[in-house]
């Protein structure tokens, strides 16, 4: 029995993250499907910005670390992203910050109409370009390769020009004690700027991030409207979140 398309894509991305280049012939033999099928899979993944096709195969683009992060806790991230997308209405105004879970939100907005998205994430753009009904505005700024994001004064000035109903943030670590944290100061500045221009601000993060602390403190959890995470969070952590003053949702 052949492997389902979604599973093939995950296996292809996993190998690409490890090896950097792939061969259509080798993938066809490994996955037990035709070379035509593999080429179709590679074309689909290229359209989503996850790889670059080459003669006879594919190669990693400039963000292999992001590919690796996308494969970690992928089911939980998809569930979280779907729950976040459910908050978005037709004709909504939304800001989406950088991060693999944040970028996944866009994949669940295909049925929405008139949604305008301001983002500093090039991953969000790669997802959103597939949906003609979504309007995407990039902030501009300095490209931060590790997070596939735009940061710095240019990004902050752009954010300050807009007002939205919803803002979604990612994180490198969060807890009731230390709040929302991230790995670098410029990312923290973007999150704070987006929060200031949004009526509602939501953290989307899988349960593996709970209890971890990034280098830079961004804000207390009570400063957010809510947190969307997965049901893998331990009971003690759930209790901490529900008593932290935010709308804590477990999917």
Q: Whole-number radius of gyration? A: 18 Å
Largest sheet: 7 strands, parallel
Principal-axes geometry comes out as globular
Q: Fraction of residues in helices?
A: 25-40%
Query: How many individual helices?
Result: 10
- The portion of residues forming beta strands comes to 15-25%
Question: What would you call the structural class?
Answer: alpha/beta
Counted beta strands: 15
- pLDDT averaged over residues: 90
Order of helices and strands: HEHHEEHHEHEHEEEHEEEHEEEHE
Cα end-to-end separation = 32 Å
Strand order of the largest sheet: 6-5-4-9-12-14-15
Poorly predicted regions: none
Description:
The chain starts with a helix and ends with a strand. 41% of the residues are buried. It is an alpha/beta fold and 251 residues long. The chain has helices at residues 5-19, 24-31, 35-47, 64-71, 74-85, 100-106, 122-128, 153-159, 185-196, 235-242; strands spanning 21-23, 52-54, 57-59, 93-96, 116-119, 135-138, 142-144, 149-151, 164-169, 173-175, 179-182, 198-204, 216-219, 226-229, 247-250. Helix 1 crosses helix 4, helix 5 (74-85) packs across helix 6 (100-106) and helix 6 (100-106) packs parallel to helix 7. The strands form four sheets. Strands 6-5-4-9-12-14-15 form a seven-stranded parallel β-sheet, sandwiched between helices. A three-stranded antiparallel β-sheet has the order 1-3-2. The mean pLDDT is 90. It has ten helices and 15 strands. Strand 14, helix 10 (235-242) and strand 15 form a beta-alpha-beta unit.
């Amino acid at each position: 029995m052949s492997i389902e398309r979604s599973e093939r894509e995950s296996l292809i991305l996993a190998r690409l993250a490890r090896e950097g280049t792939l061969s259509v012939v080798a993938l066809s033999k490994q996955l037990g499907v035709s070379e035509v099928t593999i080429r179709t899979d590679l074309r689909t993944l290229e359209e989503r910005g996850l790889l670059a096709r080459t003669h006879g195969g594919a190669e990693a683009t400039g963000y292999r670390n992001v590919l690796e992060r996308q494969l970690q806790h992928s089911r939980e991230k998809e569930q979280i992203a779907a729950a976040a997308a459910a908050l978005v209405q037709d004709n909504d105004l939304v800001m989406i910050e950088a991060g693999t879970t944040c970028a996944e939100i866009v994949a669940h907005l295909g049925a929405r109409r008139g949604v305008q998205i301001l983002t500093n994430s090039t991953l969000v753009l790669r997802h959103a370009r597939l949906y003609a009904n979504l309007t995407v505005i990039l902030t501009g700024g300095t490209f931060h390769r590790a997070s596939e994001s735009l940061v710095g004064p240019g990004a902050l000035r752009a954010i300050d020009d807009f007002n939205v109903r919803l803002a979604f943030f990612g994180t490198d670590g969060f807890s009731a004690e230390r709040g929302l944290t991230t790995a670098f100061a410029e990312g923290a500045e973007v999150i704070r700027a987006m929060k200031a221009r949004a009526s509602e601000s939501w953290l989307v993060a899988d349960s593996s991030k709970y209890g971890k602390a990034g280098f830079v403190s961004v804000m207390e959890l009570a400063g957010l409207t809510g947190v969307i995470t997965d049901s893998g969070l331990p009971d003690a952590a759930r209790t901490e979140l529900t008593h932290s003053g935010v709308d804590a949702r477990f999917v």
